[in-house]
Structures are given as C-alpha cells and as structure tokens.
C-alpha cells in the first residue's frame, strides 16, 4: 500500500512538472503573436536635426547613484539609459535626465516632425514640452510594482510577464511641427524623475528613399540545416537571394562574431578579448577612448534610425560582459518562452514608429540556442532520429524559421521590400558530439564537444549567409568562400556609404549585383576563446594562442567532417600555415610594463620617440609623474604604457641600469648621461606571449622593461593580481588618471 501511494505521488509530481513545462516554460504551440498591422510604407523622411547632442551641453548628465543602469554616452553625449532591470526584458536608449530646464531655438521647415521618447524608472516621472512658451505635451508616467525579488525572478515571471509591464519602461511620442512651419521657435524641455530619449526632427525627403538594412541573426544555426532545405522560409529567401554555401563565422561564440560583424575588425583590433564573458575595465577604457566606427554609428551619421532587437546581451554598454556598440536603441529579451513572438512584434512596431525614416536593424532570434525548448507543433517524426538534443535543436530552428518568414513577409507587404536589404545569417554553428570527439590540447579536459564555443571544427564555424533584396540582389549561389566579417563592407557598399579605412573583410556586392561571377579566394580566420583557425585553400589549421605546440590540420575537401588530423604527417605545411596565421592575425595593442626601483633622492626619466606616444598610461605603487614627453619615476613601483604599436627605442635619463630580462635584444648605449635601448624586434612579438613576471618578485635597482599583448595581459589579470577580476570601470579610470 505504501509503495503504491509513493508511486502515485511520484506520478502526480511528474505530471505537474510536465504541465508546468508545457504551459509556463516551453513555447506555446498555439500562440504566434498578435498581428501587428503595418500601414503601407510612408513617404520617405530624413533627419534634419538630432537634438540630443545639443541638449546635452548643459546640466547633470549621468547621476552616479543610478549606476550601472545609467552610464555616459560616449558617442553622442548625455547618457545611455537601460530600463527594465533584467526582469524579462531590458531596453537601452540614448537619453538625458528630465530634471532641469533645457531650451533650444530652431527654424521649422515645412513638414517637420519631432520624435522623442520618455522614460520612467524608480518613481513617477513628469514631462512637459513647450513651444514658444505654450505647453504642447504634459505627461506623467508611473512605474510598475517592483518585482525584482528572487521569487518573482525564478517563478513568478512565468505567470505574470504577459500581464504586467516590467519595472521601468519607455513611451514614444511624435509631434507635428506643421503649425510653426517657416517660423523660428524655441523648444523648452522640463521634467522630473525620468528621461528624455532620442529627440529628432525629421523632414520629408525628395527622390528615391535610401536603402534600409535588416540583419537577421538566427543563433547557432548550422549551415547544413539550411543547405538541406529543412527550413521553409529561409529556403525561400535563399532561392530568391544571393547565398554563400561556403561561409564561415569569425568566432565560435556570439560576442566575437557580432563585434567583427559590426566593427569590420577582429578582436585584437577592436580590443575586446574572447577568453571569457567578462570584459576587463581596461579593455573598455581603451575601446571607448578609440571611438571606433561601427555599422550603427555610420548609419546613424547617414541619418538612419538604428536599433538592435532580440536576445543578445552583448550589445548594451551597462553590463560587465558588453560594450556600447553604437545603436540608438537596444531591446534585449532573456530567453522567454515566447521571445520570438515578442521580437517579431517589436520589430514591426519599431519600423512603424520610425514613420518613413531609413533604418538599420539588427534582429537576433535566440530560441535556437541551448537549452532547446521547441513547441510540440514544431517537432517532426524524424527529428529524434538525430538524437534527443539535435532533434530538439532542429525543431527550434523550424519554429524560429516561421518568424523569420513572417518578419520579411510583413515588411514586404507594407511596401518596404523594394528598398530593404535583408541579410540572414548565424553567429556560429553548433556541435552535437556527432563524431565522439573530445576537446584536446588547449582545453585541458576530455568532455565531448557539444553546443558551441568549445572547438573550431567545421560544424561550429560554418554558417549560412544569405542576402535578399528584390530588384537589388540577383538570385544565385556563390561558391566564393565568405565570412561574417564581409558583411560590414558589403552592406555599406550597397547603401552607398563610405567604408572606413583599415576595415577587414571584402565587399561582396559585385557578386550580389551580378557584376562578377566570382572573387579570388582569400584566407579566413576564425577566433575561439583561446585558439584560432586559419582556412586557406583546402586546409583548416587550428592552433592554441597560448600553446603554439598544440596544432591540428584537416583537409576540408576530402574530410569536411574533420575526422582525420594531418598535423603530424604534414609538418612542413603546418609550419607554413602557422606563419601565415601570425602574419594575418597580429596581436592586440602592446602593453609595455616598466618595473622601477629608483633609490631615494633620485628620479628616473623614461622617454620614448615622439612618434610613439602611448594611448593610455597608469601606474601602481611608487611615484610616477609626467614632464613633457618624459615619465618621472621615483621609489619602487610599475608604470603601464599602452601603445598602438611597439616603440622602436626607449631612453632612460638617469644613472640607472635599463634591464631587459624577457627577450629584448640588449643593444644599449650611453646617451646624455643615461641609457638608450633598442626595442625593435623586427616582426613584433608573438600573439601568445604571456606576461610572465610575478608582481611579488623583487625588483632590482633600475628600470626593467617587459611587453605583452593587452588581451593576454587582462586575461591573466596581471593588473590586479590580488583582487581578481573585480575592478570597476571607475577604479580603473581613477588609477589610469582619467577620473578623480
């Protein structure tokens, strides 16, 4: 009897668990979102004036007590404000605090329209907008109840997120300036407790509308799933567009691929490492100081509205694992059971709100990412023949395929098809231990290779790449090998926008327009967490970035599944491929570390050529000052100097020895009562060179120089060996002299 009761109890628990999964975790098989009616494409408009940079010149911009959700906007001035607080969605916009009064005067052109948004955060927020002293908008926004507790985050959000708005939200508004056409008016912005976001004045545009760009990313989508025609809507776009069956990602996980796709550069040039989710504050400081152009910033400068909508935390600026990549607006979901529905609906609403402005959109569908939770209706009888995980993965991709089709079809029906270029792609592939392979060499364990971010084998790096634009893209399959880093040059060329100097990748538009049948083959590089792959001719060469002796070599033509490692047999070819990889994949910015021990009462003066000024410099311990081009060293400590390229010479003007125990050629000579040392090594330094010296080891009297790539330096956390990777951005900026 007891045994029967126990079995009944276990059965009831299992039944309730299954019900919970079906109704509150797995995507609903019956709900595909509300139909968002998009009216016919409105008459094209262009940006006449961006008000945010003008309004941000006065007042307190970014209150420190609201960190990390409010941070300085280093692109346009003002703030980058994130509302939503990580409950189930967070939305970031460029904004200004509503407190205070801001005024500006402008000439109103015929047909002018003012668009803006209001944000509500912790309490009630009041907003007032006046034109020539007369209020034209007065609004009060009230926050939703605080549901940030553990119970809600873990359980309650499955029940309530569809019925209540998240804490903190944005409200969009549009104001016609037609009554003041031809007049000079004064706009007065007032408020309390909230934020004004993205104020823009637009006017009608004559002539042909600019080309809209929509990048649609399906996370983890394998190339072979598309090539076999398993996805109905993507297959339709592939047949009608230009596709690249031999396309590869630039990284084996999302951030490394997306940053290359948006900046046209690889991680050493962007300055953000791929080793872990965490981005060291020193990397962030250098990244923002460089102000690298990105696709969103270039399109914004061309008058486009820009946004990223999807499930992708790497596009915000507030978190410790991402940077602000330049979008006007980022809306990020968190693996919700209906996220594909919400993403599609939000994209269509956003396009409608832009009211004819050209747009650049990055859409990221993430329900194909682990854990795979497809609706029951997406499953097919043959799916589980591939194994449990891979079967669910195929069903997830089939489910997301419906929303890719719905998104493109809805925009085409609204009249956006003729002036929109769609780019359908994946950020990386996916592995399911199909061949029983294990991680070898640099990973240090024997787990099976599954999911992504664990290897650089073909199933993790081969991706679909499809360009679709009726009347602009000639249908066809192009067998030229392509990469995600080719997307930036290609879309800028198609949109008629100048391409920045130094961007990598190639312009594929001659193939898409039918102007050329093929392009010459070039080697491709794919980055991993601590490894890199070179695809050159038929060869796939893999190596560790920290252990150069760890190498693999595969023939992609004869062995597309990468089962047979040829590295031991083809040792000469392996060596030449490594040399080529080092040439094509240079190290990140060099960090020169000067450890000094200057006797009491003396001062060391360290100089570098005037053409080699450091990008950043800071110190730990000791006393470091600056006198013109010279760094003044006293006591015992360390000086950190970050350069764009390694200086050729270093000069120490003091009766102290200049030491180089870590590989620099000791070509020192006496100069003006001091010592000058050659730092030129001919070919730079290896990208795997570590920072080997322990901070606790004794420093001899004099100045000792060593060098390491920045990305290796922050990976080993040499900057803060005692505190781990817990330094804040503010602490780094204070230590490096950029904040008091």
Question: Which key terms come to mind for this protein?
Answer:
740 residues, alpha+beta, 15-stranded mixed β-sheet, nine-stranded mixed β-sheet, 36 strands, globular
Number of strands: 36
Taking pLDDT < 50 over at least 5 consecutive residues as the criterion, the unreliable ranges are 146-154, 160-166, 435-447, 661-667, 720-729
Distance from first to last alpha carbon? 74 Å
Shape: globular
Can you describe this structure?
This protein is an alpha+beta fold. It contains 17 helices and 36 strands. The strands form 6 sheets. The chain has a 15-stranded mixed beta sheet that branches. A hairpin with a 6-residue loop joins strand 2 and strand 3. The radius of gyration is 28 Å and the shape is globular. The relative contact order is 0.11.
Question: What topology emerges from the helices and strands here?
Answer:
Blueprint: H1 2-25, E1 45-50, H2 52-55, E2 70-72, E3 79-83, E4 89-97, E5 101-107, E6 113-120, E7 125-131, E8 134-141, H3 150-160, E9 169-176, E10 184-192, E11 194-204, E12 212-218, H4 223-227, H5 232-240, E13 242-243, E14 247-248, H6 254-263, H7 267-270, H8 281-290, H9 295-301, E15 305-310, E16 329-333, H10 339-353, E17 359-365, H11 388-413, E18 420-425, E19 431-432, E20 450-451, H12 458-461, E21 465-468, E22 476-477, E23 482-483, H13 487-495, H14 509-512, E24 524-527, E25 531-536, E26 539-544, E27 551-555, H15 571-584, E28 590-598, E29 604-607, E30 616-627, E31 630-642, E32 649-653, E33 658-659, E34 668-671, E35 674-678, E36 702-709, H16 710-715, H17 729-735
């Amino acid at each position: 009897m007891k045994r029967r009761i126990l079995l009944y109890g276990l059965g009831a628990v299992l039944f309730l668990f299954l019900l919970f999964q079906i109704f509150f975790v797995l995507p609903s098989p019956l709900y595909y979102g509300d139909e968002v009616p998009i009216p016919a494409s409105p008459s094209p408009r262009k940006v006449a004036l961006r008000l945010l940079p003008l309004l941000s010149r006065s007042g307190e911009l970014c209150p420190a007590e609201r960190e990390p959700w409010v941070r300085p906007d280093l692109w346009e001035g003002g703030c980058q404000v994130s509302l939503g607080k990580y409950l189930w969605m967070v939305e970031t916009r460029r904004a200004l605090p509503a407190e205070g009064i801001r005024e500006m005067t402008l000439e109103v052109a015929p047909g002018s329209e003012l668009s803006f948004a209001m944000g509500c955060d912790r309490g009630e927020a009041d907003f007032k907008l006046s034109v020539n002293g007369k209020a034209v908008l007065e609004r009060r926004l009230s926050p939703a109840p605080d549901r940030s507790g553990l119970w809600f985050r873990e359980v309650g959000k499955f029940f309530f997120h569809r019925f209540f708005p998240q804490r903190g939200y944005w409200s969009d508004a549009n104001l016609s300036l037609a009554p003041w056409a031809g007049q000079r008016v004064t706009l007065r912005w007032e408020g309390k407790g909230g934020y004004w976001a993205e104020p823009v004045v637009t006017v009608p545009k004559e002539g042909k509308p600019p080309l809209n760009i929509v990048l649609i990313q399906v996370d983890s989508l394998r190339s072979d799933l598309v090539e076999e025609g398993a996805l109905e809507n993507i297959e339709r776009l592939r047949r009608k567009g230009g596709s690249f069956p031999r396309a590869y990602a630039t990284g084996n996980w999302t951030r490394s691929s997306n940053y290359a796709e948006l900046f046209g550069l690889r991680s050493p040039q962007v300055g953000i490492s791929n080793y872990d989710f965490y981005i060291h504050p020193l990397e962030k400081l250098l990244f923002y100081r460089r102000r690298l152009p990105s696709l969103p910033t270039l399109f914004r400068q061309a008058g486009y509205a820009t946004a990223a909508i999807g499930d992708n935390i790497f596009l915000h600026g507030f978190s410790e694992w991402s940077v602000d990549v330049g979008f006007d607006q980022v809306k990020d979901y968190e693996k919700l059971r209906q996220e594909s529905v919400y993403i599609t609906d939000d994209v269509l609403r956003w396009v409608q709100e832009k009211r004819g402005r050209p747009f650049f959109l990055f859409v990221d569908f993430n329900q194909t990412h682990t854990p795979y939770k497809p609706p029951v209706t997406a499953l097919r009888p043959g799916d589980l023949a591939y194994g449990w995980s891979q079967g669910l993965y195929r069903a997830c991709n089939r489910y997301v395929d419906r929303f890719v089709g719905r998104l493109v079809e809805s925009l085409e029906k609204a009249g956006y098809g003729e002036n929109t270029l769609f780019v359908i792609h994946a950020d990386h592939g996916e592995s399911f231990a199909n061949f029983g392979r294990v991680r070898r060499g640099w990973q240090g364990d024997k787990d099976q290779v599954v999911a992504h971010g664990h290897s650089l084998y073909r199933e993790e790096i081969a991706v679909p790449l499809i360009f679709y634009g009726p009347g602009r893209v000639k249908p066809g399959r192009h067998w030229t090998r392509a990469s995600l880093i080719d997307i930036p040059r290609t879309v800028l060329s198609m949109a008629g926008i100048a391409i920045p100097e130094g961007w990598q990748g190639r312009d594929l538009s001659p193939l898409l327009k039918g102007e050329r049948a093929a392009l010459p083959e070039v080697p491709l590089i794919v980055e991993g967490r601590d490894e890199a792959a070179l695809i050159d001719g038929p060869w796939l060469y893999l190596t560790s970035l920290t252990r150069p002796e760890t190498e693999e070599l595969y023939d992609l033509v004869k062995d597309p599944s990468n089962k047979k490692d040829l590295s031991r047999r083809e040792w000469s070819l392996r060596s030449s491929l490594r040399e080529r990889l080092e040439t094509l994949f240079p190290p990140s910015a060099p960090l020169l570390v000067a450890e000094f021990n200057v006797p009491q009462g003396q001062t060391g003066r360290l100089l570098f050529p005037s053409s080699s000024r450091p990008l950043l410099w800071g110190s730990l311990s000791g006393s470091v000052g600056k006198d013109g081009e010279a760094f003044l060293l006293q006591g015992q400590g360390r000086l950190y100097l970050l350069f764009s390229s390694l200086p050729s010479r270093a000069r120490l003007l003091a009766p102290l020895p200049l030491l180089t125990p870590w590989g620099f050629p000791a070509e020192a000579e006496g100069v003006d009562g001091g010592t000058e040392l050659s730092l030129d090594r001919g070919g730079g330094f290896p990208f795997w060179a570590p920072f080997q010296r322990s901070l606790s080891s004794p420093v001899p009297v004099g100045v000792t120089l060593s060098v390491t790539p920045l990305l290796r330096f922050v990976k080993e956390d040499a900057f803060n060996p005692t505190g781990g990777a817990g330094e804040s951005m503010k602490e780094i900026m204070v230590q490096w002299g950029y904040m008091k």
